[in-house]
Amino acid sequence: MTTVTSTDHHAQGFEDEVREVVLRVRGALTRILEATGGYSPRVKDVCDALNVHRKLGWQIAKVACEKDPLVAARFMPAAGGMRTFLKTAARRNVGEKLLRRASEAFDEFERVVAEHADDRSSLEMMLGACSPNVDEVGQLSARKMAFEGNSMIFGVQARAYLVAAFVHPSAKRGWFDTARLHSYVGFRRNRPNLPWVISRTLVADDDYKQRAPELRECLDLAPEGDASPSVPLLRKFCSHPLPQLRRRVDSCGWVLEELVEGPVGNTAAVTLVTAELTRQTARTFRTKHTKQMEWGAWITTPCEVLLFDQFVHKDLFPPSPREVRMYANLADPAHFADGQVLPIFERVEMLGRGQETVHTPDIPRYGEMAQHLFDRLGWDARQFELHRLRIRFPPMPTAVVVSHSLHPARRRTRPESKPRAQRGRTDGS
Protein backbone atom coordinates (compact mmCIF):
# COMPACT_ATOMS: atom_id res chain seq x y z
CA MET A 1 0.00 0.00 0.00
CA THR A 2 1.34 3.41 -0.93
CA THR A 3 0.98 6.24 1.58
CA VAL A 4 0.69 9.73 0.14
CA THR A 5 1.60 12.62 2.40
CA SER A 6 0.93 16.25 1.69
CA THR A 7 3.55 18.96 1.96
CA ASP A 8 3.19 22.44 3.35
CA HIS A 9 4.06 24.41 0.22
CA HIS A 10 0.57 24.10 -1.29
CA ALA A 11 -1.09 25.39 1.89
CA GLN A 12 1.53 28.13 2.20
CA GLY A 13 0.98 29.14 -1.45
CA PHE A 14 -2.73 29.46 -0.78
CA GLU A 15 -2.13 31.64 2.26
CA ASP A 16 0.33 33.87 0.41
CA GLU A 17 -2.01 34.25 -2.55
CA VAL A 18 -4.98 35.19 -0.38
CA ARG A 19 -2.90 37.57 1.70
CA GLU A 20 -1.56 39.32 -1.41
CA VAL A 21 -4.90 39.76 -3.13
CA VAL A 22 -6.65 40.94 0.06
CA LEU A 23 -3.95 43.57 0.55
CA ARG A 24 -4.62 44.78 -3.00
CA VAL A 25 -8.36 45.02 -2.33
CA ARG A 26 -7.72 46.72 1.00
CA GLY A 27 -5.41 49.29 -0.57
CA ALA A 28 -8.00 50.16 -3.22
CA LEU A 29 -10.86 50.39 -0.70
CA THR A 30 -8.77 52.53 1.63
CA ARG A 31 -8.11 55.08 -1.10
CA ILE A 32 -11.83 55.25 -1.94
CA LEU A 33 -12.76 55.67 1.73
CA GLU A 34 -10.13 58.38 2.18
CA ALA A 35 -11.48 60.21 -0.86
CA THR A 36 -15.00 60.18 0.56
CA GLY A 37 -14.14 60.83 4.23
CA GLY A 38 -15.26 57.38 5.33
CA TYR A 39 -11.95 55.73 6.27
CA SER A 40 -12.80 54.56 9.79
CA PRO A 41 -13.30 51.30 11.69
CA ARG A 42 -16.70 52.64 12.77
CA VAL A 43 -19.49 51.22 10.62
CA LYS A 44 -21.56 54.40 10.98
CA ASP A 45 -18.78 56.52 9.44
CA VAL A 46 -18.56 54.26 6.38
CA CYS A 47 -22.35 54.17 5.96
CA ASP A 48 -22.71 57.94 6.30
CA ALA A 49 -19.88 58.70 3.86
CA LEU A 50 -21.11 56.39 1.09
CA ASN A 51 -24.84 55.98 1.90
CA VAL A 52 -24.67 52.17 1.96
CA HIS A 53 -26.68 49.82 4.17
CA ARG A 54 -25.24 48.76 7.51
CA LYS A 55 -24.20 45.22 6.59
CA LEU A 56 -22.22 46.40 3.57
CA GLY A 57 -20.68 49.22 5.56
CA TRP A 58 -19.63 46.72 8.23
CA GLN A 59 -18.01 44.44 5.66
CA ILE A 60 -16.12 47.30 4.00
CA ALA A 61 -14.91 48.61 7.37
CA LYS A 62 -13.66 45.15 8.39
CA VAL A 63 -11.78 44.58 5.14
CA ALA A 64 -10.23 48.04 5.24
CA CYS A 65 -9.25 48.09 8.93
CA GLU A 66 -8.64 44.48 10.03
CA LYS A 67 -4.90 44.00 10.54
CA ASP A 68 -4.74 40.33 9.56
CA PRO A 69 -5.50 39.89 5.81
CA LEU A 70 -6.57 36.27 6.38
CA VAL A 71 -9.20 37.46 8.85
CA ALA A 72 -10.22 40.37 6.60
CA ALA A 73 -10.85 37.94 3.73
CA ARG A 74 -13.74 36.39 5.67
CA PHE A 75 -15.60 39.72 5.59
CA MET A 76 -15.16 40.43 1.88
CA PRO A 77 -18.53 41.49 0.35
CA ALA A 78 -20.16 39.30 -2.28
CA ALA A 79 -20.00 40.42 -5.92
CA GLY A 80 -23.35 42.21 -5.70
CA GLY A 81 -22.32 44.09 -2.59
CA MET A 82 -19.04 45.19 -4.15
CA ARG A 83 -20.86 46.48 -7.25
CA THR A 84 -23.19 48.49 -4.99
CA PHE A 85 -20.22 49.94 -3.12
CA LEU A 86 -18.41 51.00 -6.32
CA LYS A 87 -21.59 52.57 -7.76
CA THR A 88 -22.15 54.66 -4.64
CA ALA A 89 -18.47 55.65 -4.68
CA ALA A 90 -18.82 56.77 -8.31
CA ARG A 91 -21.76 58.97 -7.29
CA ARG A 92 -19.43 60.59 -4.71
CA ASN A 93 -17.13 61.62 -7.59
CA VAL A 94 -14.41 59.07 -6.83
CA GLY A 95 -11.98 58.95 -9.76
CA GLU A 96 -12.36 56.29 -12.45
CA LYS A 97 -8.80 55.10 -11.87
CA LEU A 98 -9.50 54.27 -8.20
CA LEU A 99 -12.75 52.51 -9.08
CA ARG A 100 -11.10 50.41 -11.77
CA ARG A 101 -8.26 49.44 -9.44
CA ALA A 102 -10.75 48.28 -6.80
CA SER A 103 -12.81 46.34 -9.36
CA GLU A 104 -9.75 44.56 -10.75
CA ALA A 105 -8.46 43.66 -7.28
CA PHE A 106 -11.85 42.25 -6.29
CA ASP A 107 -12.07 40.21 -9.51
CA GLU A 108 -8.67 38.73 -8.65
CA PHE A 109 -9.96 37.85 -5.18
CA GLU A 110 -12.94 36.06 -6.75
CA ARG A 111 -10.56 34.13 -9.01
CA VAL A 112 -8.57 32.94 -5.96
CA VAL A 113 -11.80 31.79 -4.28
CA ALA A 114 -12.87 29.85 -7.37
CA GLU A 115 -9.44 28.22 -7.68
CA HIS A 116 -8.91 27.10 -4.09
CA ALA A 117 -12.41 26.62 -2.63
CA ASP A 118 -15.86 25.56 -3.73
CA ASP A 119 -17.51 28.66 -2.28
CA ARG A 120 -17.13 31.39 0.34
CA SER A 121 -18.08 29.04 3.19
CA SER A 122 -15.30 26.65 2.23
CA LEU A 123 -12.87 29.54 1.95
CA GLU A 124 -13.76 30.76 5.45
CA MET A 125 -13.08 27.31 6.92
CA MET A 126 -9.69 27.16 5.19
CA LEU A 127 -8.78 30.67 6.29
CA GLY A 128 -9.85 29.95 9.87
CA ALA A 129 -7.35 27.10 9.99
CA CYS A 130 -4.55 29.20 8.47
CA SER A 131 -4.82 32.41 10.46
CA PRO A 132 -3.15 32.59 13.89
CA ASN A 133 -5.90 35.01 14.92
CA VAL A 134 -8.95 32.95 15.87
CA ASP A 135 -12.33 34.21 14.68
CA GLU A 136 -14.20 33.87 17.97
CA VAL A 137 -17.66 34.62 16.55
CA GLY A 138 -17.26 32.23 13.62
CA GLN A 139 -15.79 29.46 15.77
CA LEU A 140 -18.55 29.74 18.37
CA SER A 141 -21.22 29.62 15.66
CA ALA A 142 -19.67 26.47 14.18
CA ARG A 143 -19.43 24.85 17.62
CA LYS A 144 -23.10 25.56 18.34
CA MET A 145 -24.16 23.94 15.06
CA ALA A 146 -21.97 20.93 15.88
CA PHE A 147 -23.57 20.67 19.33
CA GLU A 148 -27.06 20.59 17.83
CA GLY A 149 -26.07 18.01 15.22
CA ASN A 150 -24.24 15.79 17.71
CA SER A 151 -27.17 15.94 20.13
CA MET A 152 -29.32 14.39 17.44
CA ILE A 153 -26.74 11.93 16.09
CA PHE A 154 -25.48 10.58 19.44
CA GLY A 155 -28.83 10.87 21.20
CA VAL A 156 -27.74 12.75 24.35
CA GLN A 157 -26.96 16.29 25.47
CA ALA A 158 -26.28 18.28 28.65
CA ARG A 159 -26.65 21.89 29.69
CA ALA A 160 -23.28 21.94 31.48
CA TYR A 161 -20.33 19.67 32.24
CA LEU A 162 -18.16 20.38 35.28
CA VAL A 163 -14.67 18.94 35.78
CA ALA A 164 -12.97 20.18 38.94
CA ALA A 165 -9.75 19.12 40.68
CA PHE A 166 -8.96 20.07 44.28
CA VAL A 167 -5.19 19.67 44.75
CA HIS A 168 -3.60 19.51 48.21
CA PRO A 169 -0.17 18.42 49.56
CA SER A 170 -0.04 14.73 50.50
CA ALA A 171 1.04 13.35 53.84
CA LYS A 172 3.95 11.93 51.82
CA ARG A 173 6.32 14.81 51.19
CA GLY A 174 6.80 15.87 47.59
CA TRP A 175 3.45 14.43 46.48
CA PHE A 176 -0.06 15.81 46.22
CA ASP A 177 -3.59 14.45 46.72
CA THR A 178 -6.45 15.22 44.33
CA ALA A 179 -10.17 15.36 45.00
CA ARG A 180 -12.09 15.09 41.73
CA LEU A 181 -15.56 16.55 41.24
CA HIS A 182 -17.49 15.71 38.05
CA SER A 183 -21.00 16.86 37.28
CA TYR A 184 -23.45 16.85 34.40
CA VAL A 185 -26.27 19.37 34.73
CA GLY A 186 -29.45 18.68 32.76
CA PHE A 187 -28.23 15.48 31.11
CA ARG A 188 -30.97 14.44 28.67
CA ARG A 189 -31.41 11.47 26.35
CA ASN A 190 -32.83 12.16 22.90
CA ARG A 191 -32.92 8.45 22.09
CA PRO A 192 -34.46 5.85 24.46
CA ASN A 193 -32.61 3.11 26.35
CA LEU A 194 -29.16 4.48 25.61
CA PRO A 195 -26.30 3.87 28.10
CA TRP A 196 -23.61 6.56 28.16
CA VAL A 197 -20.08 6.88 29.57
CA ILE A 198 -20.12 10.14 31.51
CA SER A 199 -16.59 10.13 32.93
CA ARG A 200 -13.17 8.58 32.33
CA THR A 201 -10.08 9.11 34.47
CA LEU A 202 -6.47 7.97 34.35
CA VAL A 203 -3.35 9.08 36.23
CA ALA A 204 -0.26 8.54 34.09
CA ASP A 205 3.18 9.95 33.30
CA ASP A 206 4.18 11.76 30.13
CA ASP A 207 4.60 8.42 28.34
CA TYR A 208 0.99 7.42 29.28
CA LYS A 209 2.14 4.71 31.69
CA GLN A 210 0.72 4.18 35.18
CA ARG A 211 3.68 3.62 37.48
CA ALA A 212 1.75 3.51 40.76
CA PRO A 213 -1.72 2.23 41.66
CA GLU A 214 -4.35 4.88 42.31
CA LEU A 215 -5.47 5.08 45.93
CA ARG A 216 -9.11 6.17 45.52
CA GLU A 217 -11.48 7.07 48.32
CA CYS A 218 -15.20 7.80 47.97
CA LEU A 219 -16.17 11.14 49.50
CA ASP A 220 -19.81 10.24 50.14
CA LEU A 221 -21.08 7.20 52.02
CA ALA A 222 -23.79 5.23 50.19
CA PRO A 223 -26.91 4.43 52.22
CA GLU A 224 -27.95 0.81 52.22
CA GLY A 225 -29.92 -0.09 49.08
CA ASP A 226 -28.97 3.13 47.29
CA ALA A 227 -27.38 3.48 43.84
CA SER A 228 -24.37 1.38 42.92
CA PRO A 229 -21.76 1.74 45.69
CA SER A 230 -18.96 1.34 43.15
CA VAL A 231 -19.69 4.82 41.71
CA PRO A 232 -18.82 7.75 44.03
CA LEU A 233 -22.05 9.73 43.68
CA LEU A 234 -22.35 12.87 45.78
CA ARG A 235 -25.98 12.12 46.51
CA LYS A 236 -26.84 15.38 48.26
CA PHE A 237 -26.37 17.29 44.99
CA CYS A 238 -27.80 14.80 42.46
CA SER A 239 -31.33 14.88 41.06
CA HIS A 240 -33.88 12.46 42.50
CA PRO A 241 -34.55 9.67 41.98
CA LEU A 242 -30.79 9.13 41.95
CA PRO A 243 -29.16 8.50 38.57
CA GLN A 244 -28.14 4.87 38.14
CA LEU A 245 -24.49 4.39 37.17
CA ARG A 246 -21.99 1.58 36.91
CA ARG A 247 -18.18 1.61 36.94
CA ARG A 248 -15.79 -0.47 34.88
CA VAL A 249 -12.09 -0.44 33.97
CA ASP A 250 -11.10 -0.84 30.32
CA SER A 251 -8.07 -2.64 28.89
CA CYS A 252 -5.94 0.54 28.97
CA GLY A 253 -6.54 1.15 32.67
CA TRP A 254 -9.12 3.91 32.24
CA VAL A 255 -11.80 4.03 34.95
CA LEU A 256 -15.14 4.52 33.18
CA GLU A 257 -18.38 5.62 34.83
CA GLU A 258 -21.46 4.82 32.75
CA LEU A 259 -25.03 6.07 33.09
CA VAL A 260 -27.39 3.16 32.55
CA GLU A 261 -30.26 3.07 30.06
CA GLY A 262 -33.26 5.35 30.59
CA PRO A 263 -36.16 7.25 28.97
CA VAL A 264 -35.95 10.38 26.80
CA GLY A 265 -36.89 14.04 27.24
CA ASN A 266 -36.75 16.80 29.82
CA THR A 267 -38.93 14.94 32.32
CA ALA A 268 -36.28 12.19 32.48
CA ALA A 269 -33.27 14.58 32.50
CA VAL A 270 -30.83 14.08 35.38
CA THR A 271 -28.18 16.03 37.24
CA LEU A 272 -25.42 13.85 38.58
CA VAL A 273 -22.37 14.65 40.69
CA THR A 274 -19.49 12.33 41.56
CA ALA A 275 -16.62 13.05 43.95
CA GLU A 276 -13.65 11.03 45.14
CA LEU A 277 -10.17 11.49 46.52
CA THR A 278 -6.95 10.06 45.08
CA ARG A 279 -4.07 9.89 47.54
CA GLN A 280 -0.53 10.50 46.28
CA THR A 281 -1.71 11.38 42.78
CA ALA A 282 1.72 12.48 41.55
CA ARG A 283 4.89 14.27 42.54
CA THR A 284 5.09 18.04 42.80
CA PHE A 285 8.48 18.16 41.04
CA ARG A 286 9.80 17.19 37.64
CA THR A 287 10.98 13.62 37.13
CA LYS A 288 12.42 11.54 34.33
CA HIS A 289 8.93 10.71 33.10
CA THR A 290 7.00 13.87 33.99
CA LYS A 291 8.23 17.31 32.91
CA GLN A 292 5.07 19.34 33.57
CA MET A 293 1.64 18.99 35.14
CA GLU A 294 -1.29 18.37 32.81
CA TRP A 295 -4.99 18.33 33.74
CA GLY A 296 -7.31 16.82 31.14
CA ALA A 297 -11.03 16.99 30.46
CA TRP A 298 -12.36 14.54 27.89
CA ILE A 299 -15.35 15.83 25.93
CA THR A 300 -17.42 12.90 24.72
CA THR A 301 -20.90 14.30 25.38
CA PRO A 302 -22.57 17.22 23.54
CA CYS A 303 -22.85 20.01 26.12
CA GLU A 304 -23.57 23.71 26.07
CA VAL A 305 -20.82 24.66 28.52
CA LEU A 306 -17.65 23.05 29.87
CA LEU A 307 -16.40 24.41 33.20
CA PHE A 308 -12.89 23.12 33.91
CA ASP A 309 -11.60 24.20 37.34
CA GLN A 310 -8.42 23.59 39.30
CA PHE A 311 -8.41 24.49 43.01
CA VAL A 312 -4.69 24.45 43.80
CA HIS A 313 -3.12 24.86 47.24
CA LYS A 314 -0.97 27.98 47.18
CA ASP A 315 2.19 26.16 48.32
CA LEU A 316 2.13 23.28 45.83
CA PHE A 317 3.45 24.51 42.49
CA PRO A 318 5.69 27.36 41.34
CA PRO A 319 3.86 30.43 39.99
CA SER A 320 3.44 29.97 36.25
CA PRO A 321 0.88 30.70 33.53
CA ARG A 322 -1.63 28.03 32.56
CA GLU A 323 -1.52 26.94 28.92
CA VAL A 324 -4.55 25.49 27.14
CA ARG A 325 -4.64 23.04 24.25
CA MET A 326 -7.50 21.20 22.64
CA TYR A 327 -6.76 17.92 20.85
CA ALA A 328 -8.92 16.06 18.38
CA ASN A 329 -9.46 12.79 20.22
CA LEU A 330 -10.53 10.42 17.46
CA ALA A 331 -8.46 7.37 18.36
CA ASP A 332 -7.01 6.05 21.63
CA PRO A 333 -7.99 8.46 24.45
CA ALA A 334 -4.85 7.53 26.36
CA HIS A 335 -2.76 9.13 23.61
CA PHE A 336 -4.64 12.38 23.17
CA ALA A 337 -1.43 14.39 22.63
CA ASP A 338 -0.87 12.46 19.40
CA GLY A 339 -4.04 14.05 18.00
CA GLN A 340 -4.39 17.22 16.00
CA VAL A 341 -4.29 20.49 17.93
CA LEU A 342 -7.52 22.41 17.35
CA PRO A 343 -7.95 26.20 17.49
CA ILE A 344 -9.26 27.57 20.78
CA PHE A 345 -9.65 31.18 21.88
CA GLU A 346 -10.56 30.64 25.55
CA ARG A 347 -7.93 31.08 28.27
CA VAL A 348 -7.58 30.07 31.90
CA GLU A 349 -8.49 32.77 34.42
CA MET A 350 -7.10 32.94 37.95
CA LEU A 351 -10.13 33.96 40.01
CA GLY A 352 -8.42 34.26 43.40
CA ARG A 353 -8.70 32.41 46.70
CA GLY A 354 -11.58 31.50 48.95
CA GLN A 355 -15.10 30.19 48.72
CA GLU A 356 -16.54 33.39 47.22
CA THR A 357 -14.67 32.79 43.93
CA VAL A 358 -16.51 29.53 43.16
CA HIS A 359 -20.08 30.57 42.29
CA THR A 360 -21.28 30.49 38.68
CA PRO A 361 -24.75 30.37 37.09
CA ASP A 362 -23.58 27.46 34.92
CA ILE A 363 -23.57 25.00 37.85
CA PRO A 364 -26.38 25.32 40.44
CA ARG A 365 -25.19 24.90 44.05
CA TYR A 366 -21.55 24.72 42.97
CA GLY A 367 -20.46 26.79 45.96
CA GLU A 368 -22.17 24.29 48.28
CA MET A 369 -20.51 21.37 46.50
CA ALA A 370 -17.04 22.90 46.86
CA GLN A 371 -17.60 23.74 50.54
CA HIS A 372 -18.86 20.20 51.15
CA LEU A 373 -15.59 18.81 49.79
CA PHE A 374 -13.44 21.25 51.76
CA ASP A 375 -15.32 20.39 54.97
CA ARG A 376 -15.24 16.65 54.27
CA LEU A 377 -11.47 16.72 53.70
CA GLY A 378 -10.63 19.27 56.39
CA TRP A 379 -8.98 21.62 53.88
CA ASP A 380 -9.08 25.42 54.20
CA ALA A 381 -10.65 26.99 51.09
CA ARG A 382 -8.74 30.23 51.77
CA GLN A 383 -5.48 28.43 50.94
CA PHE A 384 -6.61 27.42 47.44
CA GLU A 385 -6.27 29.41 44.22
CA LEU A 386 -9.02 28.81 41.66
CA HIS A 387 -7.98 28.56 38.00
CA ARG A 388 -11.00 28.38 35.67
CA LEU A 389 -11.45 27.55 31.99
CA ARG A 390 -14.92 28.05 30.52
CA ILE A 391 -15.71 26.83 26.99
CA ARG A 392 -19.08 27.23 25.29
CA PHE A 393 -20.21 24.35 23.07
CA PRO A 394 -16.91 22.41 23.35
CA PRO A 395 -16.43 20.22 20.26
CA MET A 396 -16.37 16.45 20.63
CA PRO A 397 -14.60 14.11 20.77
CA THR A 398 -11.76 16.21 22.15
CA ALA A 399 -9.33 16.37 25.04
CA VAL A 400 -8.93 19.79 26.68
CA VAL A 401 -5.59 19.99 28.48
CA VAL A 402 -4.42 22.65 30.93
CA SER A 403 -0.72 22.49 31.71
CA HIS A 404 1.73 24.31 33.99
CA SER A 405 5.24 23.89 35.34
CA LEU A 406 6.43 21.77 38.25
CA HIS A 407 9.20 22.40 40.74
CA PRO A 408 12.71 21.48 39.52
CA ALA A 409 13.76 17.86 39.93
CA ARG A 410 15.16 16.88 43.31
CA ARG A 411 18.92 16.74 43.44
CA ARG A 412 20.34 13.45 44.67
CA THR A 413 23.37 14.65 46.60
CA ARG A 414 25.31 12.65 49.16
CA PRO A 415 24.33 13.68 52.68
CA GLU A 416 27.89 14.56 53.70
CA SER A 417 28.22 16.99 50.78
CA LYS A 418 25.09 18.96 51.72
CA PRO A 419 25.25 22.18 53.68
CA ARG A 420 23.99 21.60 57.21
CA ALA A 421 20.91 23.80 56.68
CA GLN A 422 19.81 21.74 53.68
CA ARG A 423 19.94 18.28 55.25
CA GLY A 424 16.72 16.30 55.00
CA ARG A 425 15.00 18.36 52.29
CA THR A 426 13.30 16.05 49.82
CA ASP A 427 10.72 18.19 48.07
CA GLY A 428 13.06 20.10 45.75
CA SER A 429 11.36 23.40 46.60
Q: In words, what does this structure look like?
A:
The chain is an alpha+beta fold and 429 residues long. Helix content is 30%, strand content 26%. It has nine helices and 14 strands. The protein has helices at 8-36, 43-50, 54-65, 69-72, 79-91, 96-116, 120-130, 136-154, 366-377; strands at residues 156-169, 175-189, 196-201, 215-218, 245-249, 255-259, 270-283, 292-299, 303-313, 323-328, 341-342, 349-353, 384-392, 398-405. It has a seven-stranded mixed β-sheet. A hairpin with a 5-residue loop joins strand 5 and strand 6. Helix 1 packs across helix 3, helix 1 packs antiparallel against helix 6 and helix 2 packs across helix 3. The two termini are 53 Å apart. The relative contact order is 0.12.
